[in-house]
Amino acid sequence: MNLISKDFIRNIAPQLDLLNTLGGGIAQASMRIDKREKGVVVRVAAPSVSPDNFHVVLNNNVLTVFAEYRHSPEDKLAAPLFTRTLNLPATLDYSRIDAVFEGQELQIRIPYRDAATEPREINIKQR
Questions:
Q1: Given CA atoms 57, 84, 42, 30 in this order, what sign does their dihedral have?
Q2: pTM above the 0.85 mark?
Q3: Closest listed residue to residue 18, CA positions, set 43, 51, 53
Q4: How far apart are CA 72 and CA 44, in angstroms?
């Protein structure tokens, strides 16, 4: 005697997964910032989060990295999984930022600005 049908289990499983996630079932996302010779690499690891669920938004000098859960891609309602916000220094070149999902980690690479574009004081000569 089956008390619960297979269709019911198939339909309820994603909702249970979402509730488990909202209740802390997902491992905590971790963020690490590595300074390199040519720039900065922001590394975000969030186990069990699909690469399609990550989003990276740059607004002026504020970088926001977040992930959301949608039962299906067409769903208008999304549950937030995590959000991290960073204020970026002016020494970085925002126009050349890129993001790559490699292994189980999102890597956001931001190169330093060219030294020629940095402001500098000009010496005044007297004649």
A1: negative
A2: no
A3: 53
A4: 24
